[in-house]
User: What shape does this take?
Amino acid sequence: MNFYQSGWTKVLTTYHRFAGSWAWIFHRISGLALTAYIFMHIIALSNLQKHKIDGGKAFNEEMALFSSPFFLVIEWLLFAFVLYHTLNGIRIVLVDFANGARYHKQLHYAVVTIGVIAFIAMGYVIFSHQVNKTVAMLF
Amino acid sequence: MSYKHLGSRNSGAPGWLFQRITGIVLIVAMVGHYILMHYTPTSGHSFASTFERMQNPLWKVFYLSFVVVGIYHGLNGVWGVVRDFKMKRWLSMTILGAMIILGIAFAVFGFMNVLVF
Assistant: This one.
């Protein structure tokens, strides 16, 4: 296949001084990943379809697996993709429909700041249950 | 791309607008989804609570539309990526066809997850 822009690797590596090009690239990568994820998610939840036979046993076992520390970390990373795509999506909507084009830099700082805070906050939300469970088990 | 082959009447503007509308809808739905799944993990990670939720037709409608809007937003985004490459028409149309079939198949599969209750 041909690219409109010849030498796109050069484009990728030399446009980095503009935050907008990184925002664009990350938005695409996270978008493609999340699209793959939604298909995976639908397949994963198909254990619900067995509930009339097994009373939700398969689903509960799967959810127990997804509640293991390894999957919690994976889910936290998934949240990073969701979070970035959400915040940058809001930025895009503001640029397209509001006066966002005049505030590109401020919007980028806002995306990064809110993103880091929300990522840490979600880390606390995801792992606090696990930590509380472990603490309750120990004492 | 390919959109020059679709004729000048199709500028891609409706897809652009729908992408923003579905995106905003997904933000609202996703915040609720995350609260349900991670802030109160038992509400999302046990069959009993899922079963209970699914007895409410409003939750069913929510999940059915979540599936449709999510898949549409995702595949419309992928199509936006595909359109940025100068592909042969047969190739981009094959990809578009595969995406539509994939999207419908997974939407039906997602519907089955909800409508089994």
